[in-house]
């Protein structure tokens, strides 16, 4: 890790000001955003992503879309995956078996990735007061794109957050954001 990044990534997730410190590094596979291959393929072939999200060009348009459309954080829409008869890792336990309809949340997560968010924009997501789902997608963006050793610095200030979100498609599994 280079010294400029080390200095900017400490102290609460790199909240250091300055244009040179506003660019986020990327960790992992840039072509897949570190997403599971089946999830990524379903996002990229989704008409919601290809038609509707393609029209959204700015960070603020995507944040508005998250506010109005995201209702859960699961990768698949309820009832859209066939998991009966599958065992092991393909049994739906980890979300990697047979595909289904990819969720709005994951399509928007990938759309945020295509915008190559800045530190300022990530902090805007994490501190958004209108929707826990906007904040949750900010945390997921960090989880998929940032070096694992830097995640605690980003998450530390939010570990005691008591705001609730629904993590399960179709409802019924409310969890605290932290």
Automatic annotation (TrEMBL):
Keywords: mRNA processing, mRNA splicing, Nucleus, Spliceosome. GO terms for cellular component: precatalytic spliceosome. Its main location: nucleus. The keyword Methyltransferase does not apply. It holds the Pfam family PRP38. It is found in: Nucleus. One of its GO terms (biological process) is mRNA splicing, via spliceosome. Required for pre-mRNA splicing. PANTHER family: PRE-MRNA-SPLICING FACTOR 38A-RELATED. Belongs to the PRP38 family. This is Pre-mRNA-splicing factor 38. It comes from Drosophila melanogaster.
């Amino acid at each position: 890790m280079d010294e400029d990044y080390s200095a900017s990534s400490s102290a609460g997730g790199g909240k250091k000001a300055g244009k040179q410190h506003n660019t986020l590094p990327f960790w992992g596979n840039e072509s897949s955003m570190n997403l599971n291959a089946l999830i990524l393929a379903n996002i990229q072939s989704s008409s919601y992503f290809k038609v509707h999200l393609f029209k959204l060009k700015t960070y603020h348009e995507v944040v508005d879309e998250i506010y109005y459309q995201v209702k859960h954080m699961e990768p698949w829409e309820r009832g859209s995956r066939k998991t009966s008869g599958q065992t092991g890792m393909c049994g739906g336990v980890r979300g990697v078996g047979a595909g289904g309809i990819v969720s709005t949340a994951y399509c928007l997560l990938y759309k945020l990735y295509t915008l190559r968010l800045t530190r300022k924009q990530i902090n805007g997501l994490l501190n958004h007061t209108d929707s826990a789902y906007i904040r949750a997608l900010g945390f997921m963006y960090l989880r998929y794109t940032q070096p694992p050793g830097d995640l605690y610095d980003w998450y530390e200030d939010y570990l005691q957050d008591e705001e609730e979100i629904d993590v399960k498609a179709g409802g019924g599994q409310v969890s605290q954001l932290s």
